[in-house]
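Closing statement on the copper (II) ion sub-project.
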Amino acid sequence: MTARPYVTGPGTFDNSTVAGILEYETPSLHIKNLPLLKPQLPPLNDTSFATTFAGRLRSLASAEFPAKVSQEVERRFFFTVGLGTSPCDRNALCQGPNETKFAASVSNVSFVLPLKALLGVHFAGQSSGVYSPNFPVSPLRWFNYMGSPPSNTAVGNGTKLVILAFNTSVEVGFGNYDPNSDPNRFNLVDPVERNAVGVPAGRWVAIRMIMNGCIVDSGVWFMHCHLEVHTSWGLKMAWLVLDGKLPNQKLLPPPSDLPKC
Ligand SMILES: [Cu+2]
């Protein structure tokens, strides 16, 4: 087996190929001189190959493992994800263009980590002043996300959350999206249930979530880029799912040995 990254963006990264040899131990299959299969990998930037492969992923959608897709959506959000710049801190050395520092954002909000833990202050009822509950439902400024980027790359910032009632079904879309034609192409039958999704460059992805303790529990949930450097630049936001009415729909207290820092 071999594997290597798929990449379309600029920037340097480790583009080497990893390889492993899989040997079956079943004695009856001990045939000598089996040929060593060496997979042919597509080019690093073969978007159509990667898209076709990812598009074939399906859940089992069986009686034992049903696909829990909400057919109705109560709250719709339109997010953008991207890189940008912020002013350089005083006396700091910044590596972004025109002496700025690199920043990243969701819907142009570069997330500022609060000094107090969001989940902790939420549980303790002491969240006043720690975050604002007004993460934008859709981008404040629209442009063609699939065209050339705007010349102003400055991002805003803040500790902004989306607050949702328990059991809310949510749909999140990213990028350019046609609300009339695109929903017809959604897979509401057997999509994969997952905690990470690829957003193609200059394109969009639609996600559905139900905040019902089955898929997303009550509490505070970060949604963030899986490149650590982008997360540190602010490509993250948080959902706050309120408790439900039933006893098993409440946020559990922190463990007694939770380190205090
Ligand atoms: Cu990223």
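The chain is about 10% helix and 20% strand. With this model delivered, the sub-project is considered complete and its resources will be redirected to Aim 3.
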